[in-house]
Design a protein that fits this description.
Number of strands: 9
Structural class: alpha/beta
Helix content: 40-55%
Low-confidence stretches: none
Distance between the termini: 46 Å
Order of helices and strands: HHHHHEHEHEHEHEEEHEEH
Strand order of the largest sheet: 1-9-8-2-5-3-4
Length: 307
């Protein structure tokens, strides 16, 4: 049974401290009524402004790109970085738009490829984990799969409680269940065993709780949870990537073949295999991966700071 939303609790957010947030939401809501191609054009402009003015994040992204693709030229690395900021700028407007537009309008923006892998796993009675790296369009991918079938997705709590409520409702409005990224393992396993496909986002710096395995070339602190999830829930792992199409043409959600011989039961081997699957997806559209994130912030003992 799909997760049904309760009426929005407006009375909780009438205090003056929430007024600036309401005003900002109203402005963004009006902007998102524009056609997607217009939002993409405006977002591109915002992204280019951020690229030229935001030296700190621009340098973080460029350092990540060069570390992961040492074989490319400086010119190519800068091109990827610049295109990346363009997509980040677009997401400022397209992500909230996808949370508010009608189901039919949203569905018209989506192209779903590789569905046979998903359907075959369901037909075989398999539990499913969808391995979803941090691409710019990942929210659209999560909404798409929630639209197709009752599913479960991760989210990170926002400090602004009004924004947190808006984001949770936007991301679960097609009936998906949301799990906070720090939720207990047993809660996630229980829902996967119930048959809810799990849209899993694992590729952020895991701090000292992670294990160090290669991500492209550098070692990256990575959570080893995917192998545990797959083993305890007896689930297959299907890679999924969401590509933002050029000029506001929509999104292409691509489901790949399930990971083979996974899990092995070895944390290092399984986490390395996960990162290799993510690398394959990133190589197909490097400009749309979230390079502005400090993926290599946590270093092995004795290593110099990365950033």
């Amino acid at each position: 049974m799909r997760n049904k939303q309760t009426p929005f609790p407006y009375q909780r957010f009438l205090a003056p401290k929430y007024w600036p947030t309401w005003i900002g939401l109203a402005i963004v809501r009006l902007i998102t009524l524009l056609p997607l191609r217009v939002l993409a054009a405006v977002g591109h402009g915002v992204g280019m402004l951020a690229y030229h003015l935001g030296a700190s994040r621009r340098n973080i992204a460029l350092k990540n790109i060069k570390a992961c693709f040492p074989e490319i030229s400086d010119e190519e690395a800068n091109r990827i970085n610049k295109d990346h900021f363009s997509y980040v700028g677009q997401s400022i407007f397209t992500v909230p738009a996808n949370m508010w537009i009608s189901k039919d309008r949203f569905k018209s923006r989506i192209e779903l490829d590789g569905r046979e892998h998903y359907d075959q796993a369901l037909a075989d009675g398999k539990n499913i984990i969808l391995l979803a790296p941090h691409f710019i369009g990942l929210d659209a991918g999560g909404l798409t799969l929630g639209f197709e079938r009752e599913a479960m997705s991760m989210y990170q709590y926002a400090k602004n409680t009004l924004m947190d409520e808006i984001i949770k409702r936007g991301r679960s409005r097609f009936g998906s269940h949301l799990i906070e990224r720090k939720a207990p393992l047993r809660q996630v396993i229980k829902l996967i065993r119930r048959g809810l496909p799990f849209y899993y986002l694992p590729d952020q710096d895991a701090g000292r709780k992670g294990i160090f395995v290669p991500f492209f070339h550098p070692l990256a602190s990575t959570t080893p949870a995917l192998g545990k999830f797959a083993k305890l829930s007896k689930a297959v792992v299907i890679p999924v990537k969401t590509r933002v199409k050029p000029k506001g043409a929509g999104y292409q959600v691509t489901l790949g073949e399930p990971l083979k011989d996974f899990p092995s039961g070895d944390d290092i081997a399984d986490t390395t295999a996960m990162n290799q699957a993510i690398e394959t997806m990133v190589r197909s559209m490097p400009e749309q991966y979230l390079w502005v994130h400090k993926r290599f912030k946590t270093r092995p003992e004795g290593d110099a700071k990365f950033y």
